[in-house]
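Write out the 3D structure for:
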Amino acid sequence: MKRRSFRFRLALISMGLSGLALLVFGLVSWAALSRSQLRSLDQELTTFGYRFASRSGPNVSGERQEETLASMVGSEVAPHRFFAILNQREKTLFRSSWWPERLDPIKYAPGDSLLDPQPELVIPTPKPGEARPDRELRPLYEPRFYTVDTEGKRYRLGVFRNENVVLVTGADLDQFSRALLQLRNAFLVALPAALAMIALGAWWLGRKALRSIRVLGEDMANLSVRDLDQRLDAGRADLEFARIIETYNAMLERLERSFHQANRFSADASHELKTPLAIMRGTLEQGLEKCRNLPEAQEAFSQLLEQTDRQGAILESLLLLSRADAGKLEISAERIDLSSLLETWLEDADLLAEARDLTIRSEIESGIEINGDPVLLQQVAHNLFSNAVRYNEEGGVIDCRLRRTGNGIEWTIANTGDALAEADRERIFDRFERGCRANDATESGVGLGLSLVKEIVTAHGGSVTASVTDAGLTMMTVSLPM
C-alpha cells in the first residue's frame, strides 16, 4: 500500500475543514446579508408607504408622489422603484413610470387590520413657495409584503392602504441583489487562494511540528551497534515529542546494556574456549603420533583434529566479530602491495580448487598498493575463495580480477554454479546465514565467513557486494580506497 506523507494529509484535511467552514460561513453570511438588506428594503418601502397612505385621498396626485419617491431614494435608484395607486374598488388610479408591465397591482391584497398603535409620522416643512401639506392624518392598515417571480425577474412589493386608497409600491430585487452577487463572486474568487494559503500554512506547521520526529527518524536510520551510546536531547522539544524522545533514549539504553552483555559473553566465551581447544589439539596430535601403526585410530584422530581446527577457526571468527561490534577491531595499517599478495593467496586457493577440479583464472593489475592489514585481508581472501569453491560446480571456474578504479581499487571473485538469488544478495552477509546452494551440508560452515569479510572490509573503509554477472556467475566485489 502506498503511504502518503502526514504533512500532505494534514494540509489536505486542513484545507477540507477550512473550506467547509468558509462555505458554511459564506452561506450563513449570505443569508444574513440577504435578510438584512431585505429588511432595509422593506423599511424603505414602508417609509414611503406610510408617508403616502397617511395623507392621501381619492384625489391624490400620482405625479407628485413619483417626485417624492425620486427625492427619497435618489435619481440613480429611482428607475428601480415603482408604485401604483388603487381605489377601494380595486381600480387603478395611477401607475408610476417604472411600473413593470408584467405585474398586475390588483392581484396583491392589502392588510385588513388597523395598525395599533398608528405610526408616528414626520411631515416635512414645505419649501418656500410650496403649499402647506394637509396635516390631517388618515388611519393606516397593516401593510403586506410579497416577493414575486415573473418571467425571470424578481420583485419585492409592499401594499399599504388607508380608508380611501391602496398603494402598491415595489423594488427590483435583481438590481437590489447585484451587490450581493458581486460579493458572492468575490468570495468564490478568493476562496481557492484562501484554501491554498491554508494548505501551505498547514504544510509549514506540520513540518515545524514534526521536526522532532524527523530528527528521531534520521537518528534511527543512522543507528548502528557502534552508536548505541548516542542520546537525543529533549530539552527544547514540546511535551508530547519529549516523551517520545525520552522513551527512545530509554530503549537505546536497554539495547546498549543488552548488546554489551551479549558482546562480552561472545568475546569471553571465544577467549575461554581457545585454551581447552589448544589442549585438545595437543592431545590429539600426541595420540595421532602414537597410533602410526593403527590406521583406524589414525583416521579417527585425524577427523577429530580437523574438527578441532574448524572449531578454532569459528572461535577466532566470533572473537573478531565481537571486536568489530564493540568498535575495537584494530587494523595494523601498513603500505602493502596488494597485487603481489593476491598472487600468493591464489596459490593457496589452488590447493582448495584441486579437490573439485576447478580452474582459477586471474587478471591482476600489477603495482596496486593500499594501506591495510595483510593478516585481515588474507582472511578476506581465504573466506571468499573458500566460498567460491564451496558453492561451485564440479569442473567449474573461479575468476579473480583486481584493477584500479577512479578513487580506489576493485577486487572481484566470481564462480560458476547455481546463480545467487536476488533475495539472498544482502542476506548472505548476515551472521549465521548459511548458503542454501552448498553441495555438502557438512562443508557449508556456520555462516560467519561473509559477515567477517564485510566487517574487515568496512574497517578498511571499503564495501563488499554480491551480484550475478551476465554470464550467470555469482560475483563478490570488494571495493577499497587507495
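The chain has ten helices and twelve strands.
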